[in-house]
Amino acid sequence: MSVKIKAVSKTLPNYCRDTAEIMPFLEVWLQGQEDRFIRKVRKIFENAMVDRRYSIMSPEEVFSDLSFEERNDIYIREGVKLGANCLKNAIHKAEWQNGDIDFLITVSCTGIMIPSMDAYLINMLGLRQDIVRLPVTEMGCVAGVSGMIYAKNFLKANPGKRAAVVSVESPTATFQISDYSMANIVSAAIFGDGAACVLLSSHPDDEGPEIVDEQMYHFYDAEGLMGFKPTNTGLKMVLDIAVPDAIESHFPAILHPFLKRSGLDISDMDYLIFHPGGKKIIQLVESLFTELGKDIEETKEVLRLYGNMSSATVLYVLERIMDQKPATGSHGLMLSFGPGFTAQRLLLRW
Length: 350
Prior knowledge:
By secondary structure, the protein is α/β, with parallel strands linked by helices. It has helices at residues 19-29, 35-46, 59-62, 68-94, 117-125, 143-157, 182-190, 243-260, 279-291, 297-306, 313-323, and strands at residues 4-11, 15-18, 52-55, 103-107, 132-136, 162-169, 194-201, 210-218, 226-231, 234-239, 271-274, 331-338, 342-349.
């Protein structure tokens, strides 16, 4: 049973600032710190390969002492709006009706809400009462691909059905005003907020790139590389400097056996749809792909325009590729890394 990607849509929050516009807020936050430290932090922001960041919160709110509860309330209120708008736009783009969705997956890791976002979307868009819903949390940046994998397996087992994966993330809501650690600073420098939706189908009338194969890859004994630590003040970023080295050491095992399963290798890939984790990871993966004769220009451009929006980001890259209308027979490789530590992959064919 063929499972295809019908449409991808994105929605951005109302607040937007270029890096230069963020610097005055950064200066106020860093008051009282050593000059050398301030210069270092400034350079991290200026050299993060991110020109612009969107947010569900104003800069004044981000750089304030709002409580965990207050930040999480904003995450819920604004996140639900973003998710609803994004799903609505994707359904319109696909020329479907709201009642066509059989399986709804919502993805987020940057806040806490029970009931989960999918319950709100069912009511706001009047989705079917018998829709199957699955919230995917606590998977971080990799969850956009994870949600697509779950949707693909559901659709493969249920011919003639349609699924939506909705990712809504607000890393700015997790900023820790009293935390001057490198993890918090790097997180603030590279992350932004955003939402994305991808529609998938096993219905014979729907066209789009086919998901040929999917696979997860889990690093052993690497739980501490990346994630969030729940604290009294919110979700505190965990980001180990060893992440790029871990990716590099596993890269051949992640890439080549997966493609070989379909009788392909990297030279057969026309499009690389890679999650832009940050400057160091971008530079590492770019060097590895360059050695294989490929580039990740669309990934770099998404990072520049929006920052790392956790699970939603790779779907922004996918939308840019889809909008190029690849030729029939073209292949694409989707690849994301996230907490666990894990890498997850999808092989696409147009």
